[in-house]
Every structure is written in structure tokens, then in C-alpha cells.
């Protein structure tokens, strides 16, 4: 499947049309190493192939299940894969030959403004879901695995989320469309929405 998605991307690029794949949808039913492997390999290959529409973040069980934890992890996988796809910029500014001559052997590049600026641009810094700690730091933090860290991240996002209220005119227009469909199909009520 992943190879077919890569081929599809190449055909799409050749014909200059957008291509989309469900590459982040895992077959697994639980969030485990297989889930990460399928999502990571699939998206990395898809992004390198030129896929420009990604479907399936958060999906498992062949799209029969959806997990907010997997969605958070998939967000990190997307960031890494697309950072890899963008590659390294190599030009006069990034090579900084004048800076190399100035600092010289044994010098410290981290004190240079140029290094700090390019480090921020070129270094991919994932969220706290991805562990970049030393072993002692990780142990002091509770020895949490990626699922625990994703759960904490999702809970934090949900706790702080304030949904933007829908414009009343747009809500009325949508309700009118739904009511029209309900009448056309002789549906008296819905569990949610207009009645």
C-alpha cells in the first residue's frame, strides 16, 4: 500500500495534480509500536514522494477507530516527515564560510548570532510528546512513554480550548440546509442539530 501511494504521488506530480493518501491510518487496534511504525514509515515515504494531501491522522483499525492520542502523535510524525522533506538549505548564507574562518578551529559557534538564527530554522523541535531528555531527566519526570505524554498533551489542549462560536447567520443557513434534507427524506428528528 505504501509503495502504491508513492507511485500515485509520482503520477500526480507528473500530471501536476494534487494527490492524497490515507497514509496515517494504521491497521492496529491499540496505540503501540506497530502503530508508530506504520504511520512513521508511511508518512515519511509519502512526504518524500510528493503527496500533498494527508488523510488519516488519528485513525486506527483500518479507519474504524479514531484516537486523539494517535492524532497528537501523528501531528509530531507529520512535523518530522515534512521537515525531512524540506531538506537542508545549502547556500552562501547557510554555509557561512566567513564565520567559519572568523571562529576558527577550537572556537565556539554557539556564541554567534548566525548559528543561533539558523539553529532555530533548521533544527526541528517537536513538542513534549517526543522524548528528547537524558535518562536521568526522563526518570525524574516519571519515566513516561509516548502514550502517556500524548495523553497529557491532549488533556492540556482540551482543557484550554475555547471554541469560537459559530456566526448565527451561518448556523441558520446550515440548519436550513439540514431541515431541507430532513423534509426531503421524511426524517422527523435528529439526535443533535435542528429539529
Describe what this molecule looks like in 3D.
The chain is mainly alpha-helical and 195 residues long. Among the domains are: 2-87, no CATH class; 164-195. Helix content is 56%, strand content 4%. The chain contains 9 helices and 4 strands. A two-stranded parallel sheet has the order 1-2. Strands 3-4 form a two-stranded antiparallel ribbon. Helix 2 (33-49) links the parallel strand 1 and strand 2. The longest helix is centred in the middle third of the chain and has 19 residues, at 68-86.
* Continuous helix count: 9
Global shape: extended
Question: What fraction of residues sit in β-strands?
Answer: under 5%
Count of DSSP strands:
4
Order of helices and strands: HEHEEEHHHHHHH
Radius of gyration: 23 Å
